[in-house]
Amino acid sequence: MNFVIVLVALLGSVWLLAVVEGWTTTGRLRPAAPLLSGLAHLGRESIVPRTPDRVFFETAPVLLLIVAVLGAAVLPLAPTLVIADLATGALFINAALAYVLVALIMAGWGPNGAYAMIGGWRFLGQLIAYAMLIVMPITAVAMRAESLVTTVIVGSQDGLWNIVYQPLGFVLFFIAAMALAFRAPFDLPTAPGELGGGVDAEYTGVRLGVLRLARLTLVITLASATTVFYLGGWHGPLLPPWAWSLIKTLAVAVSMLLAGRYLPRIREADLMRWCWTLGIPLALLNIIVVGLLVLVVP
Amino acid sequence: MYAQAFFVAVFGLAAIGFGVVVFRTSSMVRSALALLFSQTAVGCMFLAMQTEFLGVLQIMMMATEMSIMAIFMVMFMMDPGGMGGMDMTHQKRFSIGAGVVAAGVAIVVAFWADWGPVTAEAPDAAMQTRALGIELLGRSMLIFETAGVTILTAMIAATAVAIPVQTTANSADKEDTE
Question: What residue stretch is flagged as signal peptide (chain B) (predicted)?
């Protein structure tokens, strides 16, 4: 039952996010637009490029969707509303989302196109930049909760959310999550206007539809992870717990979209430099500060 | 119990299957990713054997490691896509012999070794994670720290070797790219 509820919540959030995205880009609020464009994808011809790596080409969009949903499986909407309350939940989400890289390399290599391939390998470089900034802030979160269980992590924020307890970790995680979801300004693998769509370039029809759905699901999963790790998950007054989870998740997802709209795309080399020379030392500092707080403050 | 044995067998066969694909394809990227999924299947075997932390860790680490290996194979091999029909195997007879002997030895050892009593009930996943953490920060700390520092030293040394020696001829290029 939890499985169905979480999937419906995920789909609903993706739909809302797509509506908001359309609203901010076209200026018109059209609730039916995501459904119509999804149907249009089904109707269009789905072209397969010449001499593709067929296995990769077909697997990539589906794999991206699966890993985004798997990541969401360990994130609780309410104290008991979680698909799998694993003892290693905070590690599991990293394991699932590591396969975003695999999916993008497949999507880049599969179609046998130059732009797609550059996009796919670019994301490998992007991973080397952001990966530590996902893992190290989560380490600090787990230190405070003294557990890797996601429901315990939310429970540990009762009274004081992690965004206040470890604001540095939140900022780093938020930026790294945007890089993981390859949203602007970190949309290097797709880079519209520069790589002609990158990994998206050779996909059409149904396959492109699945790829777009997977990208939006990934944003929602990461926004939900931000909520669980830093914004107190289901905690909040008056409204039921699941409502707070959804409201916070959507707020984070929309803020990711907005941040992307007002920032120019960052260069690969600059991203790498900032992440390694500034991001990782700050993440280490965050771990030290949280460690001291955990030991000193009762 | 039977379900557990079933899943261990399924993932074990998947690991072997992907392992065979590694050598059956001439595309370097396919080969690398087949190895990745073979290792992922080993991670799933860990999960089926109720060692949750090790399984999840294995599944996570292999995704990035094998992808990085894939790009190195693309960079250094002459026919990375396998579309030129190049044969990249060599010493076939010796390899087959060595492979059969090694597999035979492994099977004999597996059947003859005294594995000790079988644990009736695996401790729950949270306890395993805790026990692993205490092991890593206790008895095994020196080993892991030494290994970590050694790898870090090797990485720094490799990077230092890879940086080209700056001469007046190429200093202008360097400024352009910065």
Answer: none
User: In which domain, by residue range, is B73 found?
Assistant: 1-80
- Mean residue pLDDT across chain A: 93
**Chain B contacts of A152, Cβ < 8 Å?**
none
The answer on pLDDT for A290 being more than 60 is yes
Residues 64 to 83 of B: which have CB under 8 A from any A CB? 64, 67-68, 70-71, 74, 81, 83
Would you say A209 and A91 are in contact if contact means Cβ atoms under 8 Å apart? no
3-state secondary structure of A52: coil
* Six token digits for residue A260: 């992307």
A276 touches chain B (CB under 8 A): no
In the listed set B15, B50, B80, which residue is the last one of a domain according to the structure? B80
Do residue B68 and residue A124 have CB atoms under 8 angstroms apart?
yes
- Token digits of residue B100: 């059969």
Determine the pLDDT at residue B1. Answer: 78
User: Which band of pLDDT confidence, cut at 50, 70 and 90, is reported for residue B115?
Assistant: confident
Q: Is residue B169 part of a domain?
A: no
The H or E element spanning position A250 is helix A241-261
> Does the structure's ipTM exceed the value 0.85?
yes
Least CA distance to A148: which residue of chain B? B126
Asked if residue B130 belongs to a domain, the reply is yes
The tokens 């929602």 sit on which residue?
Answer: A220
Per residue in A8-60, pLDDT tens?
Answer: 999 999 999 999 988 888 888 899 999 999 999 998 988 899 888 899 999 99
Overall average pLDDT of the A61-80 stretch: 94
Domain boundary among B80, B100, B134: B80
Q: Using a CB-CB distance cutoff of 8 angstroms, which residues of chain B are in contact with residue A135?
A: none
The residue type found at A204 is T
Distance in Å, alpha carbon of A130 to nearest chain B alpha carbon: 12
Q: pLDDT for B28-51, tens place per residue?
A: 899 999 999 999 999 999 999 999
Are A148 and B83 inside 8 Å of each other by CB? no
SS3 state of residue B68:
helix
Encoded tokens for A16? 């809302």
Give the H or E element holding residue A61.
helix A54-73
Residue B18 in domain:
yes
Contacts of A106 in chain B (CB under 8 A): 33
B81: phi then psi, degrees, rounded to nearest 5: -85, -10
The predicted model scores a pTM of 0.91
Q: How many domains are there within chain B?
A: 2
pLDDT recorded at residue B62: 93
Amino acid type, A227 = T
pLDDT digits 0-9 by tens, B138-151: 999 999 999 999 99
Q: Given the structure tokens 């860990």, which residue do they identify?
A: B46
A51 with B57: Cβ contact below 8 A: no
